[in-house]
Write a structure and sequence with these properties.
The protein has six helices and six strands, in the order αβαβααβββαβα. It has two domains: 1-39; 45-233, 3-Layer(aba) Sandwich (Lysozyme-like). The longest helix is centred in the N-terminal third of the chain and has 35 residues, at 4-38. The protein has a six-stranded mixed β-sheet with strand order 1-4-3-5-2-6, sandwiched between helices. It is of the alpha/beta class. Helix 5 (164-180) packs across helix 6 (221-233). The chain has helices spanning 4-38, 53-67, 90-98, 107-112, 164-180, 221-233; strands at 45-47, 79-84, 121-123, 129-131, 149-154, 186-189. Strand 3 (121-123) and strand 4 (129-131) form a beta hairpin. Bound molecules: zinc ion (ZN).
Length: 240
């Protein structure tokens, strides 16, 4: 006959095993349940691609001429360049980007290539993000850096017309791009592109010797400062 003491020890052993097993199951369940809360949530991006066969061919010619790269592919982008459209509405900007060839009135641009200007993303004043090109294709938005840059355009006539919703959307989009392309190291405003003192400038490529760069003012110093400040608050620091 077993003593009560021995029975008690066995019961304790059994119960502890029983509880341990259930505690483990409970913890696994909790982890499964809460993990989506910590996983990354990408921003809402609407795709309205404006890419055509003609554009790919023009981009390839452009790339050949300016960088010697015989391709329209954007491979491992290193820079994000922020712009504003200098239009007051989304549709004006969208219709302009939709064209295959650059507007002939933009003589300086048209002189070097018929390839239309473009950007990978267009952010409306209400903060909605529209993707115009896959990020694996080059677009013509920042001379000297198109071979390595993702372009983000914001609908707006001036720096003052850019909205808080756009600022937030830029941040969300930049985070998404960093998650997607680990090759990205730099973030600049278009107005900073020819600043030889900034580290991104080492990536400048331009084979066209008679091309004189234009002074750009978009998106503006205040907008970029605010953008960098908010990214820093989220622990994101990109080189300039
Ligand atoms: Zn620009």
């Amino acid at each position: 006959m077993m003593s009560w003491g021995r029975n008690y020890t066995m019961l304790k052993k059994y119960m502890s095993k029983f509880y341990l097993k259930h505690l483990m199951l409970f913890l696994i369940f909790i982890l499964l349940f809460i993990s989506p809360i910590f996983s990354y949530n990408p921003p809402q991006i609407t795709q309205r691609f404006v890419l055509t066969e003609k554009k790919l061919s023009l981009m390839k010619d452009y790339s050949n001429k300016f960088t010697g790269i015989d391709s329209f592919y954007l491979y491992q982008p290193k820079i994000i360049v922020i712009h504003y459209t200098a239009t007051s509405t989304f549709e004006q900007a969208f219709n302009m980007f939709k064209q295959d060839e650059v507007d002939k009135e933009r003589e300086k641009l048209a002189k070097y290539s018929a390839c239309n200007v473009g950007a990978h993303f267009l952010i409306d004043s209400d903060g909605s993000i529209v993707q115009l090109y896959p990020t694996t294709i080059m677009t013509r938005h920042t001379i000297g850096f198109n071979h390595t840059a993702i372009g983000i355009e914001n609908v707006g006539l001036t720096e003052e017309s850019l909205t808080k919703a756009q600022l937030i959307a830029n941040i969300e989009l930049i985070k998404f791009l960093l998650y997607r392309h680990q090759s990205i190291q730099y973030l600049i405003g278009h107005h900073e592109y020819m600043n030889i003192k900034l580290p991104h400038y080492q990536l400048y490529k331009n084979k066209v010797s008679d091309y004189t760069p234009t002074i750009k003012i978009d998106p503006g110093f205040k907008f970029m400062a605010r953008l960098r400040e908010l990214l820093k608050e989220d622990g994101i620091r990109l080189k300039e």
